Amino acid sequence: ILDDPDLKDIDPTVLKHCHAAAATCILEAGKQKADISAISACLEDCKLDKERIDQFCTEYQKNKDALEILLGSIGRSPLHITDVSWRLEYQIKNNQLHKTYQPSYLVTLNVESSDSGSHPDVSFSCTMEQLQDLVGKLKDAAKSLERATQM
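^ COMM domain-containing protein 3, sequence as received from the core. Prediction below:
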């Protein structure tokens, strides 16, 4: 999209926001199985002109079946964390060869889904403060779940 000559005068940030908004609109319409009248009403509320709404609805209608198939293939249940592993990484120098001496943690979450598809493990790097924050939030979530199950 950014290479399109018709769009060269538009700020790339604005263009990315518009693309994200359009993608969100399309995905939500597909997820809700919205009909053309509902989509038109929503776009009218967003102050789009009639010609653009008609063009959008025409393209959406052409691709609706493919969109529903794609959304159906994503899966319905969230991933479950089955195990976690971590290791301490100690960065001695940065890209500019300055000494940094910054410890960080490399965390890997082993995940599985009730759907048949396989999922790669989720890995991320964080500082000790970020890891402590994550652990605190997980403890809060566990306490909330425990309280909810006692009711």
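The beta strands are 80-93, 99-112, 122-126.
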